[in-house]
Amino acid sequence: MKSIVAFLSTVVVLSVMSLSTPAKANDVASFLAGVCDNVADDNKGRFRKKLKNAGVKLRNIYDGVTCGGEPLIRYAIQKNANEVGVFMVKRLPSSHFAASGDLEWANSNGFADSEIAKAIASR
Q1: N or C end: fewer C-beta atoms under 10 angstroms in the chain?
Q2: What would the pLDDT profile of 40-84 be if each residue is shown by its tens digit?
Q3: Is 50 part of a structural domain of the chain?
Q4: Cα separations in angstroms, 20 against 7, 13, 25, 47
Q5: Which residue range forms the structural domain that includes residue 101?
């Protein structure tokens, strides 16, 4: 009898775990799509709200997020999303930009005069 109860408990726990995984995956996909959309729309308020609601800091997720195959800063430069781009530059450590090559990329791709490139250069 105890083995039947243990077996049923295991089945219930495993089924609950398998149901919650797609929900989390959908939440992550929704979060990432929202981040990219807010950068493309240059909506700093919604971008900040998306990060706050997810309970994450930009510096903790920046390296793992790309939009259109580009890192967030480069994507913001391409989309002329100056408000969001400057916000991201202020939130990331200056050591990040020394290693990332974002400023060199901006200069070599004709974006040297963008507000985001100027913000990177001032850091």
Answers
A1: N
A2: 999 999 999 999 999 999 999 999 999 999 999 999 999 999 999
A3: yes
A4: 20, 11, 9, 26
A5: 31-122
How far apart CA 80 and CA 74 sit, in angstroms, is: 10
Q: Are 104 and 77 in contact (CB under 8 A)?
A: no
pLDDT score, position 29: 83
User: Residue 107 above 70 pLDDT?
Assistant: yes
Domain count, the chain: 1
Contacts of 85 (CB under 8 A, 6+ apart): 39, 73, 76, 77, 114, 115, 116, 119
Residue 62 in domain: yes
Strand partners, 66: 71
Examine the pLDDT at 116 and tell me if it is beyond 50: yes
In a domain, 2, yes or no: no
Residue in this structure with the two tokens 């959309």, named with its chain if needed: 37
